[in-house]
Specification:
mainly alpha, 91 residues
């Protein structure tokens, strides 16, 4: 893969990835995660059920980091990064 093509893909990845710190702050203060992942239906349901009466919120406290990493891995694959690039990005 040429460096130009690789840099372009990395640029697309950086535009679409979730930043872990930002997502954690949004989740802890506003309960916002699913909206950032493009799942507005789940986000609305999360709010309407008050975070599943706290159960859903408690579950997300332990799984949020993994969900962010999975989302970023999916984005990297969508933009066409190869396995070597995924390892470099820690995905």
């Amino acid at each position: 893969m040429s460096d130009y093509n690789r840099n372009e893909k990395l640029s697309f990845y950086n535009e679409r990835k979730m930043e872990s710190g930002k997502i954690w702050i949004l989740f802890l203060f506003l309960g916002w995660f699913y909206g950032s992942a493009g799942q507005m239906g789940k986000q609305i349901l999360f709010y309407l059920t008050l975070g599943g009466l706290g159960i859903w919120t408690f579950y997300l406290l332990f799984t949020l980091s993994g969900k962010i990493k999975t989302h970023n891995r999916d984005v990297a694959k969508q933009v066409g990064l190869n396995q070597e690039d995924l390892v470099m990005l820690g995905l």
